[in-house]
Amino acid sequence: MAEQDKKDWQFHLHEIIYESNTKAGKAFDVGLLIAIFTSVIVVMLDSVQSLHGQYGVLFNRLEWIYTIVFTAEYILRLVSIKKPWRYVFSILGLIDLIALIPSYLSIFFAGAQALLVFRALRLLRVFRIFKLGEFLSEINFMTTALKGSVRKISIFLLTVLTLTVILGSIMYLVEKRENGFSNIPESIYWAIVTITTVGYGDISPITPMGKFVASVVMLIGYAIIAVPTGIITHDIAVAARQKKELPESCPNCGREGHDSDALFCKHCGASLLL
Amino acid sequence: MAEQDKKDWQFHLHEIIYESNTKAGKAFDVGLLIAIFTSVIVVMLDSVQSLHGQYGVLFNRLEWIYTIVFTAEYILRLVSIKKPWRYVFSILGLIDLIALIPSYLSIFFAGAQALLVFRALRLLRVFRIFKLGEFLSEINFMTTALKGSVRKISIFLLTVLTLTVILGSIMYLVEKRENGFSNIPESIYWAIVTITTVGYGDISPITPMGKFVASVVMLIGYAIIAVPTGIITHDIAVAARQKKELPESCPNCGREGHDSDALFCKHCGASLLL
Amino acid sequence: MAEQDKKDWQFHLHEIIYESNTKAGKAFDVGLLIAIFTSVIVVMLDSVQSLHGQYGVLFNRLEWIYTIVFTAEYILRLVSIKKPWRYVFSILGLIDLIALIPSYLSIFFAGAQALLVFRALRLLRVFRIFKLGEFLSEINFMTTALKGSVRKISIFLLTVLTLTVILGSIMYLVEKRENGFSNIPESIYWAIVTITTVGYGDISPITPMGKFVASVVMLIGYAIIAVPTGIITHDIAVAARQKKELPESCPNCGREGHDSDALFCKHCGASLLL
Amino acid sequence: MAEQDKKDWQFHLHEIIYESNTKAGKAFDVGLLIAIFTSVIVVMLDSVQSLHGQYGVLFNRLEWIYTIVFTAEYILRLVSIKKPWRYVFSILGLIDLIALIPSYLSIFFAGAQALLVFRALRLLRVFRIFKLGEFLSEINFMTTALKGSVRKISIFLLTVLTLTVILGSIMYLVEKRENGFSNIPESIYWAIVTITTVGYGDISPITPMGKFVASVVMLIGYAIIAVPTGIITHDIAVAARQKKELPESCPNCGREGHDSDALFCKHCGASLLL
Question: Where in the cell is it found (chains A, B, C, D) (predicted)?
Answer without folding.
Answer: Membrane
